Amino acid sequence: FPRGDSYSITTLNLKEIVTQILSLLPDLSLVTEDHLQKLRNHLKESLVAKPWLIHFFDQTNSEKDLDLRKLPSMLTDYNVGRFDCLSSPNVCNDLYIFKKPAFILFKRSGHHEFYYGRQTSNDIAGFVRDNAFSPLRTLTPSDFPSVKTDSKPFIIDFFSPFCPPCMHLLPEFRKASKRVNDQVNFGTVDCTVHQQLCQQ
After folding, report:
1. Residue 62 pLDDT more than 60?
2. What stretch or stretches form a coiled coil here (predicted)?
3. HSE toward the beta carbon, residue 9, CA cutoff 13 A
4. 5-42: b or e for each residue (b if 16 or more CB lie within 10 Å)?
5. 8 against 102, higher pLDDT
6. Among 52, 77, 85, 153, which has the highest number of CB atoms less than 10 A from its own CB?
7. What pTM, to 2 d.p., does this model score?
8. Which residue ranges make up each domain of the chain?
9. Which fold does the domain 1-133 belong to in CATH?
10. Position 111 pLDDT exceeds 90
11. DSSP letter string over 77-124?
């Protein structure tokens, strides 16, 4: 806190104390459409760029949003921001974000991966730390021409986030991608979003 400033805690209720303290933290920095494009290009071109975690939202949820304010201090080796899908719906549509809030980890080489776990700062931070440099990537229909012509074969997990066995497999799939990524590419396709692709 700035020197000389003081804050009074006005309750003895633990949950309310935590809420008051979190409300003093700065909100995640807002990423604009132009900034998002630039950071994605930078990640694609740079071997040393810090990965980005972006929180895509379309309305505020005060209690959950306060918890997310802890993320920058938990992820000091990464960039963290938020993107308003109401102000730029075309960007969210292009990323196939139809359910908000959504969290996407943008990685070096220009790939990205959706987060499907519990939406708490601890779980999200763990996902970022474990997967920021994993070669696993989220695939969309537009990726498939290059998937078919890539010099390395692809192993693709066609899954649903509402399928418990699928979600249990996902962490193991990520581990496998780290072990043999020099020989094989790994990708995931969300069949709740890309139903036609999954039915082919």
Report:
1. no
2. none
3. 12
4. eeeeeeeeeeeeeeebebeeeeebeebeeeebeebbee
5. 102
6. 52
7. 0.86
8. 1-133, 134-200
9. Glutaredoxin (3.40.30)
10. yes
11. TSEEEEEETTT-HHHHHHTT--SSSEEEEE-GGG-EEE--S--SHHHH
What is the mean predicted confidence (pLDDT) over 93-100? 93
The letter for the amino acid at 175 is: K
Tokens representing 151 are 């010099």
The number of helix segments (H) and strand segments (E) in the chain equals 9, 8
The residue with greater pLDDT, 27 or 90, is 90
Surface-to-core class of residue 149, CB atoms within 10 Å of its CB (0-12 exposed, 13-18 middle, 19+ buried): exposed
According to DSSP, the residues that pair with 106 across neighbouring strands are 52, 112
Do 174 and 133 meet the contact criterion of CB atoms below 8 Å apart?
no
Residues with Cβ < 8 Å from 136, sequence gap 6 or more?
Answer: 113, 173, 174, 177, 186, 187, 188
Give backbone dihedrals phi and psi of 23, rounded to 5 degrees, phi first.
-65, -15
What is the pairing mode between strands 102-106 and 52-57? antiparallel
The structure tokens listed for 78 are 């990464």
CB–CB of 178/135 below 8 Å?
yes
Give the rounded percent of residues in the chain with a pLDDT score beyond 70: 92
Share of the chain above pLDDT 90, in %: 59
CA 98 to CA 77: how far, in whole Å? 29
CA terminus-to-terminus distance, the chain = 56
Each residue of 48-78: b (16+ CB within 10 Å) or e?
Answer: ebbbbbbbbbbeeeeeebbbbbbbbeebeeb
| Residue 83 · residue 57 · CB < 8 Å | yes
